Amino acid sequence: MLEALLNSLASSLNGIFGGWSSRHLHPAQVLVVASPVSALVGLCLLLSSPTSPTMSGVTIGLVAGLSGGIGIYFAYRALAKGPIGPVTAIMACTGAALISTVGIAERGSVGPLHLLALSLCFLAVVTVSVRKTEHAVAASTLSIALAAGVIGGSFSILMNLTTPADGWWPLFMVRLGVVLFTLPFALLVLRAQHKRENPVPMWVWFAAAGAGLMDGLGNMFLILALERIDLATLALFAAASPALSALLGFVLLREPISKIQALGVGVAGLGIWIAYL
């Protein structure tokens, strides 16, 4: 389950880096920087362990990449509007609900400990999302976050259809599909803006590149995790990622964390611990 936890950690860092850089750049600009970095991760993995491509692996990866590009754009746009903690929670909860539904249907049934762990992780989402009214998520941001969550959950479900025989081809095709879709789309969006932006500090661009790196590594850990666990178990870690985001936001961005949000971090940890039992 270590790979699933690392996937959640990478996803949380991707959200923090992507959301933070999207506050200084247009989300399309973040994609222009992040997508090639993620593709480079996929290429390095493919070259490190070369295998013959399979039709299923290439097809699934390309479909997941083309749709995932839309999801990434939605995610960065929602995170730019913020607040990062609640928006991350909404996306994670939506994705986890979809993953757990498909996972439980695939498994047929789950034990009481699994249901308890899943309930605790969803409770963590609620507690981490608690904010004052003036910091509530706007309705427009909510709709974008929900769409990003659905696409993110669908991405994990598609990756579950791959097999070890596919090697790293699905991941490489995912990243290639994202580049093929998002770069032309992003350039069209930026061209339509016709705005002169103020000079952006270099560290903002590095944050955007960091988002791409975490996105690519998150995909790697996801594929490794799905070789060892099923979707129903993966949903536990997907639901726990907002707690990681809240904790990382406090450490990296100095975002304030309330006592009830700190409780949510602890509840998520308890849920993951129960999942190991």
What does this protein structure show overall?
This protein is mainly α. The protein has one domain. Helix content is 81%, strand content 0%. It contains 10 helices and no strands. It has helices spanning 2-22, 27-48, 55-81, 84-107, 112-129, 139-159, 169-193, 202-226, 231-252, 259-276. Helix 9 (231-252) packs antiparallel against helix 10. The longest helix is centred in the N-terminal third of the chain and has 27 residues, at 55-81. It is globular and about 50 Å long. The termini are close together.
The H-and-E topology, N to C, reads as HHHHHHHHHH
Regarding quaternary structure, how should these chains be classified?
single chain
Q: Supply Rg.
A: 18 Å
Structural class: mainly alpha
Query: What general outline do the C-alpha atoms trace?
Result: globular
Weakly predicted, low-confidence segments: none
Characterize the biggest β-sheet: none
Mean pLDDT: 81
* Range of helix content: over 70%
Pfam family, one: EamA
Domain EamA: 143-276
InterPro entries: EamA_dom, EmrE-like
Transmembrane segments: 55-75, 87-105, 111-130, 142-162, 168-190, 202-225, 231-253, 260-276
